[in-house]
Every structure is written in structure tokens, then in C-alpha cells.
User: Which sequence fits this backbone?
């Protein structure tokens, strides 16, 4: 079962970052296999996932950095919570 209990907010985002890094590794492995097989259609398809993972790691990394700086300051964490709540929702594709 996925982890659902955490000791602090920082632990949540550290796990999120680790999961994004694992996703990136898996996508890169698939891309390498497709490249080695000269499977250009799959390479083209995987490029979207590569590009998306760059954005995902950047996004989670930025949040992780903010949480690291704010973690011991209740007011900063409340501000960060409000700021994150105002981000536009991603549409399901």
C-alpha cells in the first residue's frame, strides 16, 4: 500500500521527489531500449513523457525547496499552503 502517514510535511515532498526521480529513471530506461532497437515511433511517443518528467521534477523540486525553508515556521507553511492552493489545476489529458 502507498505510504499514507508522514512525520512532517517535508517527508511528504521528499517522498514525492523520490517517486518523480524513479519515474524519470523508468522513462529513461524505456527510451534507451527504444533507441537501441531503433524504434523511432516509440522514441517519438516517449519524448512527451521525457519532457513531462522534466517539468514534474522541476515542480516538485521547487515545492520541496520551499518546504525545506518554511518547515519550522508555521506562518510560512500557511503562506505556502495558500500559494500552492492558488496554482492552476492541471487538466486530465
Assistant:
Amino acid at each position: 500500500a502507498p505510504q499514507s502517514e508522514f512525520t512532517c510535511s517535508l517527508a511528504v515532498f521528499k517522498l514525492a521527489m523520490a517517486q518523480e526521480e524513479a519515474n524519470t529513471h523508468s522513462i529513461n530506461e524505456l527510451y534507451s531500449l527504444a533507441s537501441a532497437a531503433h524504434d523511432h515511433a516509440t522514441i517519438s511517443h516517449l519524448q512527451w513523457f521525457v519532457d513531462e518528467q522534466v517539468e514534474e521534477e522541476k515542480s516538485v523540486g521547487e515545492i520541496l525547496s520551499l518546504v525545506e525553508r518554511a518547515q519550522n515556521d508555521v506562518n510560512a507553511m500557511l503562506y505556502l499552503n495558500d500559494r500552492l492552493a492558488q496554482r492552476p489545476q492541471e487538466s486530465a489529458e
The chain has a mean pLDDT of 93. The chain has one domain: 9-85. The chain is about 75% helix and 0% strand. The helical segments are 9-36, 40-70, 74-85.
